[in-house]
Design brief:
Elements lengths: L10 E5 L13 E6 L3 E2 L6 E6 L8 E8 L6 E8 L2 E5 L9 E10 L4 E5 L8 E5 L4 E4 L14 E5 L7 E2 L4 E2 L3 E4 L5 E5 L4 E5 L9 E4 L9 E3 L5 E8 L2 E8 L5 E6 L3 E2 L6 E2 L5 E3 L5 E6 L7 E7 L8 H6 L6 E2 L4 E8 L10 E8 L4 E8 L14 E3 L2 E10 L2 E9 L16 E4 L8 E3 L5 E4 L3
Parallel strand pairs: 3-10, 11-31, 15-37, 23-24
Antiparallel strand pairs: 1-2, 2-4, 4-7, 5-6, 5-8, 6-7, 8-9, 8-10, 12-35, 13-14, 15-16, 16-17, 17-18, 19-20, 20-21, 21-22, 25-26, 26-27, 28-29, 29-30, 30-31, 32-33, 33-34, 35-36
Length: 449
Amino acid sequence: MKRTLTTLMILGVLVVAPTGSSAPAAQPLLVHGGIGHLIASGDRVEIGYQVYTAHVKSPVGVLYVRNSLKKNFERLPLKRSAGGLRAVVPKRLVQGSKLVYYAVISDPSSGRSATLPRRGSRSPASAWILDRAVIVRLGSHRFGHTRAPSGIAARAGAGSVGFENNERYQCGPQTFLVGRDGSVWLHDGLNQRLLVWPAGHPDAAPRVMPLPFFAAENDIALGPAGSVYVTQLLRDPPRLLLYRLSPAGKVLWKIRLAGDYGGESTFVLGSNSPLRLGPDGTLYCLAFMGLAGDESGWMPVATPSGRPIAAAAQRRGTHWPFQPAAPGLRLLAETYTPPNADTAPHEERFALIDRRGHLVRAWRVLSRTDFGGLAKQMTPELVGHDLVVALPSQAGQRPSMSCFGWGSTASQVAFHCPMRCGAAVSCPTSGSALTGRSTSSPRRRRQGS
């Protein structure tokens, strides 16, 4: 699997041929390129671009780059390679708090050119430099090993929830949530229901909330007044719907989400696009820009009071690429693979950015075991002041999903839950974060209910 830093953050620009050009206006110059938003001072920073316009065979370009310590851009030629146009940023520029850049690419045969981002030096692209990140070293993953929980928040035997374990599928409960009152909500997707345990009663018979349709692959979120949000994929035509359900599982309303299902549009959704509650209670859905490697954005879909947001407002309000976190903070997450490395990634990066664009805190999570095999890392979030994230790992044909949490130091591990059969949701004696093990439970979130 070949994934490089140059594919982590992709920008696209359409430039119509200038007046007098012989090139047809129906075939604008299409360019994608850039780097990730999170780089480290020791990285080999290679910025690349690809021209997708038909019949453009020999494009040329210039990269303009500076850091936060400099006022003037340096001019670097973009060199042609098998992957398009590329330039290596000198290490002397990878310092300060931020790297700022833009590129001008042209086609000599037609005279057309593209500036990326479109406004060039007036609004350049940027990447934060993680010079003081918390380094978290996970070492090598021990597949099949779990640690004893310090407490149990909810308990369900293998016969109480739906599992499928055969040559094609190994799956079970997809998600569990923790309400503000401490109740535990388990998404028993194969049985088309939610199981709800009251806080402090792990062995109680769970309340059953039926779902109106099969949603084993879809995400759920807790809404106001005990309601629940759930998505549904319809295929004729392909579209993703959002439902708000009453505490009894009745449909209160449903809307079509603004993004498209599949394709290469600006807003692309998947059947398992995550749902997240923002700091003010607004519900967001994860969307993508379309092409493989394009960046993601968080699209608002419901108000804090539980009302649906119109499609046009969903698009206007989308946060690219930030995930709304605590008030005044935005969360970034990226997978890092060195340029030209033909291996699975071994590093995940996370950062909190404030309203002024300043880096508040950052984490670099390093593993000797491959990150990959199952999927890209699940979207992270803040629980209190701690970062919580689920990370996939794989050695050979042995996949695993592990959940971790970190505070301001690498030693503050909140929980770890390798994927195994059998469901047990555990909580430390402090009650501040979940810990222990779960079946195939890649997403754990504390939400309002």
